[in-house]
Amino acid sequence: MRASANASSAAPHTPVLYQEVLAALQPKAASRYIDGTLGAGGHAIGILDASSPTGQLLGIDRDPLALDLARERLMIFGDRVHLCHGSFSEMVSHARAIGWDEVDGIILDLGLSSMQISDDARGFSLKNEGPLDMRFDPSQILTAADIVNHYSERQLADLIWLYGEEPQARRIARAVAANRPLKTTRELAELIEQIAGRSRRRIHPATRTFQAIRIAVNDELHALECGLSEAVSLLKPSGRVAVIAFHSLEDRLVKQYFRKESQECICPPSQPICTCGHHAQIRVITRRPIRPGEDEVARNPRSRSARLRVAERL
Ligand SMILES: C[S@@+](CC[C@H](N)C(=O)[O-])C[C@H]1O[C@@H](n2cnc3c(N)ncnc32)[C@H](O)[C@@H]1O
């Protein structure tokens, strides 16, 4: 009998670009897939359904609470599902631990889930009162409070500029340093609102700073760099990796990685003879990123900044 679960009915998190991810990965029976950002298991359900009755999936997440929820939602698929608490940046060893040397498809749906944003105690949301936490993995030592209250003003300014692309990074860092210790997300958001002002910008003035601190707490860009290279090394020929990014820093990193790994030679154009020894490993399937349509954005406003890029192993 074909097991079937619904990815969106009563889902605590609506999977973004769901049909587009399935169209990209083309899941098939008797194949192996990795969902490196399992979350509530929305994309995983789609992959398992489409690869019935014998496709298998390894779901990885840094957040044990997400894994608990996904475990329940994916129970219907029985032993076709393997779950792992860890980072996709180490997916090769997570796959080897269950005896997999190569896989047919990989999805990375970056960032955080609706469950994480709406849980005030996790400290991700600038709209609610919560501790300055922002860890995907609550067993990690570094929290947002450590960064906000102990980094030097200079370190803070650099981080907010680099990871938030916030033009007022220096002013914000100065204000934070002058008002420490800060304990809650609301204190931080209100302080930034006071000094950066509620301009006509649509987004809250603290949005970019919160993004920057979250990226730093979870070392997200480094994890993504490692994750992309591990993903490509695990794919079978014709296997595909699909990555959904939610901000330009992530998307740029994915685009540049795909471009580099799809080139035979990465020597500077001015160099007459190739000395790099580089070889193309992938073919880029999406010349431009796939964006959600108006319907999806209306149904799920969180999807509005999503960009999906797909590559295929040569
Ligand atoms: C946008 S949600 C994924 C939602 C999922 N696709 C769904 O349909 O339910 C992103 C998830 O990735 C997890 N995550 C973020 N960085 C990670 C990493 N480096 N390794 C593993 N999981 C990560 C977060 O904890 C979060 O649960």
Report on this structure.
By secondary structure, this protein is of the alpha/beta class. It has two domains: 192 residues, Rossmann fold, CATH 3.40.50; 101 residues, Putative methyltransferase TM0872, insert domain (DNA polymerase, domain 1). The protein contains 13 helices and seven strands. Strands 3-2-1-4-5-7-6 form a seven-stranded mixed β-sheet, with helices on both faces. Helix 7 packs across helix 10 and helix 8 packs across helix 9. The mean pLDDT is 94. The protein binds S-adenosylmethionine (SAM). The site of S-adenosylmethionine (SAM) has 23 residues, from helix 2 and strand 2.
Bin the helical content. 40-55%
- Sequence stretches where pLDDT stays below 50 over 5 or more residues: none
| Gross CATH architecture of the largest domain | 3-Layer(aba) Sandwich
CATH first level of the largest domain: Alpha Beta
**Rg measurement, Å:** 20 Å
- Beta-strand level of the residues, as a percent range? 5-15%
**Count of β-strands:** 7
| Helix count, DSSP H or I runs of 4 or more residues | 13
Overall form: globular
Main sheet properties:
7 strands, mixed
Here the CATH topology of the largest domain equals Rossmann fold
Q: CATH superfamily of the largest domain, called what?
A: Vaccinia Virus protein VP39
Order of SSEs: HEHEHEHEHHHHHHHEHEHE
Bound compounds, each kind once, are:
S-adenosylmethionine
Average predicted local confidence, pLDDT = 94
Q: Strands of the biggest beta sheet: in what spatial order?
A: 3-2-1-4-5-7-6
Secondary structure class reads alpha/beta
Quaternary status: single chain
Q: Give the termini separation.
A: 35 Å
Number of domains: 2
